[in-house]
Design goal:
mainly alpha
């Protein structure tokens, strides 16, 4: 597996975890990350939050780059 592909899969996984966690917080006031790694903002929870945030930024930049590439080629990005 290529390094880029591995990074994309890791990013997708953490973005999914972040989205799931925010959905649970919004719907049920239940924080899955804090439940798994302990309550409060301990170091493990903070690291997870930082990684999810960085992966969200990376994923957004990756999406924008792919969309620009499609637009330059005149293709639909469906």
């Amino acid at each position: 597996m290529k390094k880029c592909c591995s990074l994309d899969l890791f990013t997708a996984l953490l973005v999914f975890i972040g989205a799931l966690n925010w959905g649970l917080v919004g719907a049920f006031n239940y924080n899955l990350v804090e439940h798994i790694f302990g309550g409060g903002l301990n170091i493990a929870v903070r690291i997870i939050y930082v990684l999810v945030g960085l992966c969200g930024i990376y994923g957004f930049a990756h999406f924008i780059h792919a969309a620009k590439k499609c637009c330059k080629k005149g293709k639909s990005c469906d």
